[in-house]
User: What shape does this take?
Amino acid sequence: MNETKYTTFFTPEEIELKRSLEARLCELAGDCLRDDDMPRIETLLTQAIEEGRLRRDTFGLNPIINNLQTAIIVVDEMGMRRAAIVSILLHDVVKNEYISTEEVSAQFGADVAGILSGLVRTGKLYEKNPSIESENFRNLLLSFAEDMRVILIMIADRVNTMRQIKDVDNDEARLKVASEAAYLYAPLAHKLGLYKLKSELEDLSLKYTQHDMYYHIKEKLNATKAARDKYIAAFIHPIDEKLAAAGLKYHIKGRTKSIHSISQKMKKQKTNFEGIYDLFAIRIILDSEYEKEKQECWQAYSIVTDMYQPNPKRLRDWLSIPKSNGYESLHTTVMGPEGKWVEVQIRTERMDDIAERGLAAHWRYKGVKSETGLDEWLTSIREALEHSDDDGLELMDQFKMDLYKDDVFVFTPKGDLFKLPHGATVLDFAFHIHTNVGCRCTGGKVNGKHAQLRQVLSSGDQVEILTSSTQTPKQGWLDIVTTSKARNKIRQSLNEIESRQAAFARETIERKFKNRKIDYDEPTMMRLIRQMGYKQVKEFYQKIADGSLDVNQFIDRYVQAMELITEPHDVTTRSAEGYSMQQDEQLGHHFSGDVLVIDQNLKGIDFKLAQCCNPIYGDEVFGFVTTGGGIKIHRCDCPNAHDLHTRFGYRVVKARWAGKSKGSLYPITLTVIGHDDIGIVNNITSIISKEENIQLRNISINSHDGLFSGTLTVLIEENARLQALVKKLRTVKGVKQVNRN
Assistant: This one.
């Protein structure tokens, strides 16, 4: 280029920089450029400058310098050749319409013109959609950039721009460029296996968009560098000895994760820098023959995991199934000294070169050294970019982690590994450790951060359980846990607590009864508890135990209920209007002539017939030992039978009729339902009056909408006579149902 033109477009520093960059480019790519490429390019650039067709960009950067720097990136770090280099150097003169793509094709070839056409098209698309979402924009880029080298050049250009704008004054433009680098270009670089460039884009983006966060982490890393280096050295030392003893050729690198990676972990885990556990990464690079690569990588993996506990969730096997971008490596995360996570990457020299330089290095190993043979490489690039999975990890999970899909693996702070079902919570883990730990659990720490009992655990979590001596299991815990072990232990503990509370409440009530000299009648107690709205006796005892129900008020209600049952009546003179069956209900409370066998072989024991079910001779019955020591006889189909057997099974005794006294009559209440026909009541009472030793003591009939329902109270001597009576009543015309209460 004519030196006299430099003063109008280049600063003295830029002139020197341009010369050094051209020399570097020729050194890297001289063998692929034609002899006349650089002179002809310089001529076009000089003419474009003279006509004012080249301009500095938004940041005031020189486009020729930028293009030289970008060309060096695509050669040195991506492995691209002549067409890409020439396209980059001519980009601005074509974009600013100094020369057409047809003229470029004639002078430099159709391959160069094709790349330039794609760069111009995507550039215009980009200008029209500056804020479009990354996923949509990526799809548009792929459709516009038919040649995948266009995408690679765009990534290289953005890397170069990010490197150059650290000292510019245009903060707004820098923020926009940095944000685009993070949401679009870094994911594209990652997908292509350009991990070094991807990390650089992410770190620089964080530096420009979150300045304080970037330097906070950077300062923390600098402050802890000595301790970190010491730790990595201690971690590597035993591995080094074992690998050497195994006869492997290798070298080991220890590194800290990128600043961007650390910041993402801090956000995701909602913790500070000190709360990030897996800051460390170790890379074991083997010098292996191609045929022995996989064997020796797995051998190294075995050595590492024999010494340090691996986290199965974090195993990544890209040896068996390489990534679509050619990446091959074996990743695992192990628990190192002091309970710290360390990522270990195991690969060969060949794999490491591919990992650093992406698909370009991959295809170079396959013999692609010139423009010819690039088709296969570029096809693979398109397939990689068009793959719907952004990072490939989910696909690997599907193939490699099915073994663990129903389980989660969590660690204690000491590094002990426990397996739990998928969906297990902090509380599940507490009971998994020990029942006492579970019963006293108040919460936990997951990855160093406080967590509630119900927090669901993920594989790889490091969990510490917090306990309190005053904590006890709660009913709501059953809705938190998912494991049968925890659920069973909680139920067992709750039952023990309820039993203690019930015993305390029962003891309190019985003591009050004795102090007030009140007889304790179990059936009356049960009826009263139900009348008060308690569906289960344990709820009642719970209220007594915790003081929310005043025991004295309950006893007062109990006394009132007993008075209604035992209130005396005048039996010498009475009228039909004042007649009540209550005194007849006293019949059968004690029959000295009746004989029951209690508990298989005991006779002559004093007993009473329960009023809740009014058993009569011939009914199937059982005995119930009351708190006063007496025995109440209940029918086996008594409404209270289930609760008595369930709650007080230890007080239930067997009983059966062994004889009855002559003339004993028992009060029985029947319910009759039927059509309200004329004379139906007379028909019913007529049948009863004709029966010997059956007395009708009370009848109550209600009719409504052509139907009637009534209750009959009769005195009858035994169950057989009762069954016969019921059978006869059911034959009365219009009667539909006859049931014993």
